[in-house]
Specification:
By secondary structure, the protein is of the alpha+beta class. The protein has one domain. Helix content is about 55%, strand content about 20%. It has three helices and four strands, in the order ααββββα. The protein has a two-stranded antiparallel sheet. α1 packs across α3. The longest helix has 25 residues. It starts with a helix and ends with a helix.
Length: about 90
Amino acid sequence: MAASSGKILLWTLLGGVLGTALGEILARLLPVNSLTRFLTASVALGTSHPLTLDLRIVELTLGALLRVSLLGLVGIAIVFIAQLKRS
């Protein structure tokens, strides 16, 4: 039975959150060295200044930064692999 897209989105978000939380815990517990810096690294995606679209009737402001951590991506990959094995 194929998983619905809502379930896949939920599990993907959960995998990302748990992976990022694991990275934060490891950063606090393990001594600082090149391995822990690599595992807990994150990349900021987006713009540093907000983008404003003024349509005279409505004004939209976009500009949030998205931070992606390595262990968050690992968590997402684990969720995808688990979902593929269940299918």
